[in-house]
Batch of 2 targets.
Target 1
Amino acid sequence: MAETWGWTMTPSLACVMGATLLGACVASQGCSGPEVPEGHERVEIGGRTFVLELAADEEKRTLGLGGRDHIPENGGMLFSFPDAQIRQFVMRDCLIPIDIIFLDSDGRIVSKHHMPVEEPRRADESAREYEMRLKRYSSRFNARYAIEIRGGLLEELDLQVGEQIRLDTQRLVEITR
Protein backbone atom coordinates (compact mmCIF):
# COMPACT_ATOMS: atom_id res chain seq x y z
CA MET A 1 0.00 0.00 0.00
CA ALA A 2 1.23 3.47 -0.79
CA GLU A 3 0.37 6.67 1.01
CA THR A 4 -0.60 9.42 -1.38
CA TRP A 5 -1.86 12.94 -0.56
CA GLY A 6 -2.55 11.91 3.02
CA TRP A 7 -4.64 8.83 2.18
CA THR A 8 -3.74 5.21 1.60
CA MET A 9 -3.74 3.73 -1.90
CA THR A 10 -4.85 0.11 -1.79
CA PRO A 11 -4.49 -2.21 -4.80
CA SER A 12 -8.28 -2.12 -5.31
CA LEU A 13 -8.36 1.69 -5.25
CA ALA A 14 -5.44 1.80 -7.68
CA CYS A 15 -7.36 -0.48 -10.10
CA VAL A 16 -10.52 1.66 -9.86
CA MET A 17 -8.55 4.88 -10.41
CA GLY A 18 -6.65 3.37 -13.34
CA ALA A 19 -9.84 2.14 -14.99
CA THR A 20 -11.47 5.55 -14.49
CA LEU A 21 -8.52 7.38 -16.05
CA LEU A 22 -8.36 4.93 -18.94
CA GLY A 23 -12.10 5.36 -19.57
CA ALA A 24 -11.76 9.14 -19.54
CA CYS A 25 -8.81 8.93 -21.92
CA VAL A 26 -10.60 6.66 -24.39
CA ALA A 27 -13.73 8.84 -24.28
CA SER A 28 -11.73 11.96 -25.14
CA GLN A 29 -10.48 12.71 -28.66
CA GLY A 30 -6.88 13.06 -27.49
CA CYS A 31 -6.46 9.41 -26.52
CA SER A 32 -8.06 7.68 -29.47
CA GLY A 33 -4.76 6.50 -30.89
CA PRO A 34 -1.59 7.93 -32.34
CA GLU A 35 -1.55 11.52 -33.51
CA VAL A 36 -3.06 12.00 -36.94
CA PRO A 37 -0.69 13.86 -39.29
CA GLU A 38 -1.76 17.26 -40.60
CA GLY A 39 -3.85 16.91 -43.74
CA HIS A 40 -5.25 13.53 -42.65
CA GLU A 41 -8.42 12.36 -40.94
CA ARG A 42 -9.02 9.34 -38.71
CA VAL A 43 -12.14 7.48 -39.86
CA GLU A 44 -13.65 4.21 -38.66
CA ILE A 45 -14.89 2.09 -41.54
CA GLY A 46 -16.43 -1.32 -40.97
CA GLY A 47 -14.93 -1.58 -37.48
CA ARG A 48 -11.39 -0.70 -38.64
CA THR A 49 -9.60 2.59 -38.11
CA PHE A 50 -8.17 4.27 -41.19
CA VAL A 51 -5.97 7.36 -41.42
CA LEU A 52 -7.01 9.01 -44.68
CA GLU A 53 -5.32 11.82 -46.59
CA LEU A 54 -7.67 14.75 -47.08
CA ALA A 55 -8.50 16.00 -50.55
CA ALA A 56 -10.48 19.13 -49.74
CA ASP A 57 -9.46 21.40 -52.62
CA GLU A 58 -9.75 21.06 -56.40
CA GLU A 59 -6.06 20.33 -56.99
CA LYS A 60 -5.91 17.44 -54.50
CA ARG A 61 -9.29 16.08 -55.58
CA THR A 62 -8.19 16.02 -59.25
CA LEU A 63 -4.87 14.29 -58.51
CA GLY A 64 -6.38 11.86 -55.99
CA LEU A 65 -4.34 8.68 -55.63
CA GLY A 66 -3.10 8.84 -59.23
CA GLY A 67 0.55 7.86 -59.66
CA ARG A 68 0.74 5.97 -56.34
CA ASP A 69 2.22 2.48 -56.38
CA HIS A 70 0.67 1.44 -53.05
CA ILE A 71 -1.91 2.41 -50.45
CA PRO A 72 -1.14 1.61 -46.80
CA GLU A 73 -3.26 -1.19 -45.27
CA ASN A 74 -5.29 1.31 -43.22
CA GLY A 75 -4.73 4.32 -45.44
CA GLY A 76 -6.42 5.95 -48.39
CA MET A 77 -7.98 9.29 -49.24
CA LEU A 78 -11.06 11.18 -48.09
CA PHE A 79 -12.46 13.51 -50.75
CA SER A 80 -14.57 16.40 -49.48
CA PHE A 81 -16.57 18.52 -51.92
CA PRO A 82 -18.24 21.92 -51.38
CA ASP A 83 -21.66 20.48 -52.24
CA ALA A 84 -23.55 17.23 -52.71
CA GLN A 85 -24.21 16.11 -56.28
CA ILE A 86 -23.91 13.02 -58.45
CA ARG A 87 -20.19 12.40 -58.84
CA GLN A 88 -18.08 10.31 -61.20
CA PHE A 89 -14.55 9.09 -60.53
CA VAL A 90 -12.11 7.55 -62.99
CA MET A 91 -8.86 5.62 -62.60
CA ARG A 92 -6.71 8.32 -64.22
CA ASP A 93 -3.00 7.46 -63.91
CA CYS A 94 -3.76 4.90 -61.17
CA LEU A 95 -1.21 2.11 -60.88
CA ILE A 96 -3.08 -0.03 -58.31
CA PRO A 97 -6.68 -1.20 -57.81
CA ILE A 98 -8.78 1.08 -55.61
CA ASP A 99 -12.12 0.64 -53.86
CA ILE A 100 -14.34 3.72 -53.60
CA ILE A 101 -17.18 4.54 -51.22
CA PHE A 102 -19.47 7.48 -52.00
CA LEU A 103 -21.17 9.18 -49.03
CA ASP A 104 -23.97 11.70 -48.79
CA SER A 105 -23.74 14.91 -46.71
CA ASP A 106 -24.45 12.95 -43.52
CA GLY A 107 -21.85 10.23 -44.16
CA ARG A 108 -24.29 7.55 -45.35
CA ILE A 109 -23.02 5.22 -48.08
CA VAL A 110 -24.88 5.87 -51.33
CA SER A 111 -22.69 3.76 -53.62
CA LYS A 112 -19.47 1.71 -53.63
CA HIS A 113 -17.30 0.24 -56.38
CA HIS A 114 -14.17 -1.80 -56.96
CA MET A 115 -12.06 0.06 -59.53
CA PRO A 116 -9.45 -2.11 -61.31
CA VAL A 117 -6.34 -0.61 -62.94
CA GLU A 118 -6.94 0.82 -66.43
CA GLU A 119 -4.56 0.66 -69.36
CA PRO A 120 -2.19 3.66 -69.08
CA ARG A 121 -2.37 6.53 -71.53
CA ARG A 122 -0.78 5.47 -74.80
CA ALA A 123 1.93 7.58 -76.45
CA ASP A 124 -0.30 8.23 -79.49
CA GLU A 125 -3.35 9.09 -77.37
CA SER A 126 -4.40 12.67 -76.61
CA ALA A 127 -5.34 13.67 -73.06
CA ARG A 128 -8.97 13.98 -74.22
CA GLU A 129 -8.98 10.53 -75.85
CA TYR A 130 -7.47 9.00 -72.71
CA GLU A 131 -10.01 10.72 -70.46
CA MET A 132 -12.92 9.66 -72.69
CA ARG A 133 -12.00 5.96 -72.66
CA LEU A 134 -11.68 5.69 -68.87
CA LYS A 135 -14.57 3.90 -67.17
CA ARG A 136 -16.71 6.17 -64.97
CA TYR A 137 -17.70 5.09 -61.45
CA SER A 138 -20.83 6.96 -60.39
CA SER A 139 -22.18 7.83 -56.98
CA ARG A 140 -25.65 7.26 -58.51
CA PHE A 141 -27.08 9.65 -55.90
CA ASN A 142 -25.88 12.97 -54.50
CA ALA A 143 -22.54 12.57 -52.72
CA ARG A 144 -20.54 15.14 -50.79
CA TYR A 145 -17.73 12.79 -49.74
CA ALA A 146 -15.85 9.88 -51.26
CA ILE A 147 -13.35 7.53 -49.65
CA GLU A 148 -10.75 5.63 -51.66
CA ILE A 149 -9.04 2.65 -50.01
CA ARG A 150 -6.82 -0.22 -51.11
CA GLY A 151 -8.49 -2.43 -53.72
CA GLY A 152 -10.12 -5.54 -52.27
CA LEU A 153 -10.97 -4.05 -48.86
CA LEU A 154 -14.65 -3.53 -49.70
CA GLU A 155 -15.18 -7.29 -49.59
CA GLU A 156 -13.35 -7.60 -46.27
CA LEU A 157 -15.25 -4.68 -44.70
CA ASP A 158 -18.66 -5.95 -45.89
CA LEU A 159 -20.14 -2.44 -46.09
CA GLN A 160 -23.73 -1.88 -47.16
CA VAL A 161 -25.42 0.99 -48.97
CA GLY A 162 -27.24 3.07 -46.34
CA GLU A 163 -24.64 2.33 -43.67
CA GLN A 164 -23.29 5.34 -41.76
CA ILE A 165 -19.60 6.25 -41.65
CA ARG A 166 -18.95 8.86 -38.99
CA LEU A 167 -17.16 11.91 -40.32
CA ASP A 168 -16.48 15.25 -38.68
CA THR A 169 -18.72 16.86 -41.31
CA GLN A 170 -18.69 20.26 -39.63
CA ARG A 171 -14.89 20.43 -39.80
CA LEU A 172 -14.86 19.08 -43.36
CA VAL A 173 -17.34 21.75 -44.49
CA GLU A 174 -15.10 24.43 -42.91
CA ILE A 175 -11.90 23.30 -44.65
CA THR A 176 -13.31 22.37 -48.07
CA ARG A 177 -12.67 24.75 -50.93
Note: Confidence is low (pLDDT under 50) at residues 12-30.
Target 2
Amino acid sequence: MRTYERRNLVAQHDRGGFTLLEILIVLAIIGVIAAMAVPRLLGQQRSANVKISKQAIHSLEQNLDIYATGNNGEYPQGGQEALAVLLEMGADGSEPLYDKVPADAWNEALFYEYPSTKTTSNRPAIWSAGQNRQNENGSGDDINNWDDQTQ
Protein backbone atom coordinates (compact mmCIF):
# COMPACT_ATOMS: atom_id res chain seq x y z
CA MET A 1 0.00 0.00 0.00
CA ARG A 2 2.82 2.35 0.72
CA THR A 3 4.20 1.93 -2.76
CA TYR A 4 0.90 3.00 -4.28
CA GLU A 5 0.72 6.11 -2.06
CA ARG A 6 4.28 7.06 -2.95
CA ARG A 7 3.66 6.78 -6.68
CA ASN A 8 0.53 8.85 -6.36
CA LEU A 9 2.36 11.49 -4.29
CA VAL A 10 5.26 11.61 -6.75
CA ALA A 11 2.88 11.93 -9.73
CA GLN A 12 1.07 14.85 -8.10
CA HIS A 13 4.31 16.59 -7.18
CA ASP A 14 5.85 16.35 -10.66
CA ARG A 15 2.86 18.04 -12.33
CA GLY A 16 3.12 21.40 -10.51
CA GLY A 17 3.39 23.82 -13.48
CA PHE A 18 2.93 24.29 -17.21
CA THR A 19 5.42 23.13 -19.79
CA LEU A 20 7.03 25.56 -22.19
CA LEU A 21 5.09 24.02 -25.06
CA GLU A 22 1.75 24.58 -23.31
CA ILE A 23 2.60 28.22 -22.64
CA LEU A 24 3.68 28.78 -26.26
CA ILE A 25 0.43 27.26 -27.57
CA VAL A 26 -1.66 29.54 -25.35
CA LEU A 27 0.37 32.57 -26.46
CA ALA A 28 -0.10 31.61 -30.12
CA ILE A 29 -3.87 31.32 -29.64
CA ILE A 30 -3.99 34.73 -27.93
CA GLY A 31 -1.93 36.19 -30.78
CA VAL A 32 -4.33 34.85 -33.42
CA ILE A 33 -7.35 36.23 -31.57
CA ALA A 34 -5.67 39.63 -31.17
CA ALA A 35 -4.73 39.70 -34.86
CA MET A 36 -8.40 39.23 -35.74
CA ALA A 37 -9.83 41.67 -33.17
CA VAL A 38 -7.48 44.68 -33.28
CA PRO A 39 -8.17 45.79 -36.90
CA ARG A 40 -11.90 45.61 -36.28
CA LEU A 41 -11.61 47.69 -33.11
CA LEU A 42 -9.46 50.32 -34.86
CA GLY A 43 -12.04 50.63 -37.64
CA GLN A 44 -14.76 51.19 -35.05
CA GLN A 45 -12.64 53.86 -33.33
CA ARG A 46 -12.25 55.79 -36.60
CA SER A 47 -15.98 55.57 -37.24
CA ALA A 48 -16.74 56.73 -33.69
CA ASN A 49 -14.38 59.72 -34.07
CA VAL A 50 -16.15 60.79 -37.27
CA LYS A 51 -19.53 60.54 -35.52
CA ILE A 52 -18.26 62.55 -32.53
CA SER A 53 -16.91 65.25 -34.86
CA LYS A 54 -20.19 65.42 -36.80
CA GLN A 55 -22.03 65.79 -33.50
CA ALA A 56 -19.69 68.61 -32.42
CA ILE A 57 -20.32 70.37 -35.75
CA HIS A 58 -24.09 69.92 -35.34
CA SER A 59 -23.94 71.28 -31.79
CA LEU A 60 -22.02 74.33 -32.99
CA GLU A 61 -24.61 74.87 -35.74
CA GLN A 62 -27.40 74.81 -33.17
CA ASN A 63 -25.63 77.31 -30.91
CA LEU A 64 -24.93 79.56 -33.90
CA ASP A 65 -28.67 79.46 -34.68
CA ILE A 66 -29.37 80.55 -31.09
CA TYR A 67 -26.84 83.36 -31.49
CA ALA A 68 -28.39 84.43 -34.80
CA THR A 69 -31.88 84.46 -33.27
CA GLY A 70 -30.73 87.04 -30.74
CA ASN A 71 -28.85 89.08 -33.36
CA ASN A 72 -31.43 89.79 -36.08
CA GLY A 73 -30.72 86.54 -37.91
CA GLU A 74 -27.03 87.33 -38.43
CA TYR A 75 -24.30 84.79 -37.78
CA PRO A 76 -20.87 85.93 -36.56
CA GLN A 77 -18.97 87.11 -39.65
CA GLY A 78 -15.43 86.05 -40.42
CA GLY A 79 -13.28 83.03 -39.87
CA GLN A 80 -12.56 80.89 -36.86
CA GLU A 81 -11.83 83.97 -34.73
CA ALA A 82 -15.49 85.00 -35.13
CA LEU A 83 -16.47 82.14 -32.81
CA ALA A 84 -15.10 84.18 -29.90
CA VAL A 85 -18.52 85.89 -29.64
CA LEU A 86 -19.97 82.56 -28.47
CA LEU A 87 -17.63 82.71 -25.47
CA GLU A 88 -18.87 86.14 -24.36
CA MET A 89 -21.96 87.06 -22.35
CA GLY A 90 -24.93 88.13 -24.43
CA ALA A 91 -25.94 91.81 -24.71
CA ASP A 92 -28.98 90.97 -22.60
CA GLY A 93 -26.77 89.50 -19.85
CA SER A 94 -27.35 85.90 -20.88
CA GLU A 95 -24.70 83.28 -20.24
CA PRO A 96 -22.10 82.52 -22.94
CA LEU A 97 -23.04 79.66 -25.27
CA TYR A 98 -19.64 77.99 -24.76
CA ASP A 99 -16.87 77.97 -22.16
CA LYS A 100 -14.26 77.22 -24.82
CA VAL A 101 -14.17 76.92 -28.60
CA PRO A 102 -15.73 73.58 -29.61
CA ALA A 103 -13.36 70.82 -30.65
CA ASP A 104 -13.57 67.66 -32.75
CA ALA A 105 -12.86 64.09 -31.65
CA TRP A 106 -9.10 64.66 -32.01
CA ASN A 107 -9.32 67.66 -29.65
CA GLU A 108 -8.63 70.14 -32.44
CA ALA A 109 -10.70 73.32 -32.76
CA LEU A 110 -13.43 73.34 -35.40
CA PHE A 111 -13.02 75.66 -38.39
CA TYR A 112 -15.66 78.26 -39.23
CA GLU A 113 -16.42 80.58 -42.13
CA TYR A 114 -19.31 82.99 -42.69
CA PRO A 115 -20.28 84.07 -45.24
CA SER A 116 -19.38 80.71 -46.69
CA THR A 117 -17.34 80.35 -49.87
CA LYS A 118 -17.76 76.57 -49.72
CA THR A 119 -21.49 76.24 -50.26
CA THR A 120 -24.35 78.13 -51.88
CA SER A 121 -26.53 77.98 -48.77
CA ASN A 122 -26.84 80.94 -46.43
CA ARG A 123 -25.44 78.90 -43.54
CA PRO A 124 -21.98 79.07 -42.02
CA ALA A 125 -19.39 76.55 -43.16
CA ILE A 126 -18.07 74.46 -40.27
CA TRP A 127 -15.51 71.69 -40.58
CA SER A 128 -13.04 69.55 -38.69
CA ALA A 129 -9.52 68.88 -39.95
CA GLY A 130 -10.23 65.15 -39.57
CA GLN A 131 -7.95 62.34 -38.53
CA ASN A 132 -4.84 63.69 -40.27
CA ARG A 133 -5.29 67.05 -38.46
CA GLN A 134 -4.48 68.91 -41.68
CA ASN A 135 -6.90 71.68 -42.66
CA GLU A 136 -7.85 70.86 -46.23
CA ASN A 137 -10.70 73.42 -46.29
CA GLY A 138 -13.36 70.76 -45.95
CA SER A 139 -12.02 68.28 -48.51
CA GLY A 140 -9.80 65.23 -48.11
CA ASP A 141 -10.52 63.53 -44.78
CA ASP A 142 -12.02 66.73 -43.34
CA ILE A 143 -15.50 66.41 -41.88
CA ASN A 144 -17.82 69.27 -42.84
CA ASN A 145 -21.42 70.42 -42.54
CA TRP A 146 -22.12 71.14 -46.22
CA ASP A 147 -21.75 67.66 -47.72
CA ASP A 148 -24.79 66.48 -45.75
CA GLN A 149 -26.95 69.54 -46.55
CA THR A 150 -29.41 69.77 -49.35
CA GLN A 151 -28.72 72.92 -51.28
Note: The beta strands are 111-113, 125-128, 143-144.
